[in-house]
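Final report, results section. Input specification for complex C-07:
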Amino acid sequence: MNLKLRVWRQKNAESQGRLVDYELKDVSPEYSFLEMLDLLNEKLMREGELPVAFDHDCREGICGMCGLMINGVAHGPKAAVTACQLHMRNFHDGDTIVIEPWRATAFPIIKDLVVNRTAFDRIIQAAGYISVSTGSAPEANNTPIAKTEADLAMDAAACIGCGACVAACPNSSAMLFTAAKASHLALMPQGQPERYDRAVLMVNAMDEEGFGGCTNIGECEAVCPKEISLDFIAQLNRDLIKASFMGAGKRL
Amino acid sequence: MATSTSTSVKTMPTFMEATLDAHVPDGPIEEMWDKHKFEMKLVNPANKRKHTIIVVGSGLAGGSAAASFAELGYNVHCFCYQDSPRRAHSVAAQGGINAAKNYQNDGDSVFRLFYDTVKGGDYRAREANVYRLAQISNQIIDQCVAQGVPFAREYGGRLANRSFGGAQVSRTFYARGQTGQQLLLGAYQALARQIESGGVKMHPRTEMLDLVVVDGHARGIVTRDMVTGKIESHVADVVVMATGGYSNVFYLSTNAKGCNATAIWRAYKRGAFFANPCYTQIHPTCIPVSGEYQSKLTLMSESLRNDGRIWVPRQKGDTRKAADIPESERYYYLEERYPSFGNLVPRDVASRAAKEVVDSGHGVGELKNGVYLDFADAINRLGENVIRDRYGNLFDMYANITGEDPYKVPMRIYPALHYTMGGLWVDYNLQSTVPGLFVLGEANFSDHGANRLGASALMQGLSDGYFIAPATVSNYIAQTSLSKVDASHSAFQQAEEEVVNRVNRLLNIRGRRSVDEIHRELGKIMWEYCGMGRTEAGLKKALELIPALREEFWQNASIPGDADDLNQTLEKAGRVADFLELGELLCRDALDRAESCGGHFREESQTEDGEALRDDENFAYVAAWQYAGDDAEPILNKEPLKFDYVKLTQRSYK
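Structure output:
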């Protein structure tokens, strides 16, 4: 198939970016979206232009490194997949495809389609863990966990930290990302001792990074490649309310 | 010739001789590790913060090591090329992690896990290391559960297990098809806690481009900031490398696109021996190649072999749809040939069998390049819901990539490069031949012999990182008095200069062929002559083709852009330049090892049934290659392998 591409080009964080038009011929429907970009880059280099920078790594939908706004939708038109798992058979010959980076204050652009997502790491660093040092663990089967609880925790833990939720949110909120980790740990007995402190500290960190507040719009859930449920945001909000009565979040 | 020359390399470790000493402790194997732990020297808690440890890589081995070092009180710097340590390729491991808990009461034990691993590795691993790995396996599960890793559970709330290839007990712990992701997030969270507390300084989007050796000891690294292009030295008391494997030398593999061998290759050129490079693992269950521009291959977890049945049409060139082929005309080749292990034979055996049936004309799919992995029986027996619960995400992934629904039609699979058992040589303490350079996880060669069993990579990475390195690195620090060195030292200055020159040299090639194109060509040479079947003639051919291609790269590669900017082509070019050298060493090692063992199949050495035929008399050793200069042949050092606990036999899975 032949495609018209409109790709965001920006030299670096300081410079002004713009959409640039390219035509790309002979794209096989078997290609992944990123293989289509590889093809574009080979063509650009042959023509003496600089290739388009974009983040990617595992190309099997699990590392969370790739993230593109494709025709205004985070990770593109197919539900529940990352850009690397989106295949060109989902497009048609002659289509125009607009490709942009994630746009959020907390995710500054580094170059072209590459953004800085270290704000996510800092939310996890604030309290997104269980404080257990190597060697201090009890026998694994001492604490039974009901299968339904463990499964629900796993649903939340499936988050790959790609940032699509932020990119899709009109407020650029990171609440789905934050809630996924907080809920994963809050749903397990090991996570209880730090549960309410964790909720407060992670949300504070989210605010400090410049992410917006959550107004339950639900765009995040709609684009999440791992289908993380909005219910986890409700869970985190419940924990936050309880934490406010407990005065939690001052330590750790 | 290819690369920058390094002049200060000749600082050879003191124990380097023709045969290598692995420093395995004396005594019965069951007591070795405990005894060794007691005998190792400790560092006073108040002194630990005065010591700096560099950890390169943030996957299961690197992430867990960095966190554990910081918990002990060391000052840690951790580096990764991704934008976050959570993205290291351990994240993609699907199936599970082994441990000898024997929760299923099916006869498992530390000794059995040890035995299965040595046997599965076709008797080319060091017994003492493997025994320790089996011992530590149980602690890993405890640690990960305490961190909140959401392992699969039974209805009673206890941990669930599943079976994996090469074992007849059920000892694999799993978190759906995302076990690697969940274990990595556990290590990442432990790391995050230490970053917050100031114990670890994290350096994402930073690539190690050289190792710095001062007075015979590893004292630091030179890195490139991938955003600004800044070349920088980092000084430490110890360098720990956990940078993964080198499957991408084959271009198409199941590794992430960024996975590379640059760190271990630079270390090799600074004096670390490279062991058994020819031991590569070709995973039997990957989605077959669909076309020329394919950028990577995708694995379908080996756990699928628990419930899927592998078959091809009995009739060659059969063009009927799978559903139209009656049961009597289906060749369940693994079940027929290996009645006791059936579809659960080890990876090397399953891969070769698939190649054999495809090569002989039984392949399926449009390109006739796959075999069926069929779930119809399991779905009939257990119901679609159970299969969805066990493998849902894998089935979805398959459907996305191929456009076919595996609940309705059988999956098509074919072997692909997946893991490299070879890596930098390490002793029992995981220390390389350069004192102060420790190597963990897939980057070392230590535990899997010539073939790794499924669900053992995660176990080894975490065993090395959480439990072994914290003890052995402390011992090294306690015993070694190092001179005070900073980045102005001539060794650092020289290494920095070499890195800068190399970057400039790459940018000045200004040729016409893309780096990917040359990498793809290297991959084809490797797959053709050094893939699932290897011959003397083929390997010799590869040894002619690779240097010529390397020459072509340095004459004609096209690397646009600048050095002081995010330049993904430049990053790729540096890695491909190293693969073009490593590929040659891999072929040389494969040529030298005239026997077949595990994943290394020399067609000249096979049994009447076509199985890998070892030659224990001549090849029961670790081949550890020593760099001798860009224009000289590398030197082969040998570590003889002794088997006191496991009897060497011809592996049989019949």
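The helical segments of chain A are 33-46, 118-127, 147-157, 164-168, 175-186, 195-208, 219-223, 231-246. The beta strands of chain A are 3-9, 18-24, 69-70, 73-74, 96-100, 109-111, 114-115. This concludes the modelling results for the funded period.
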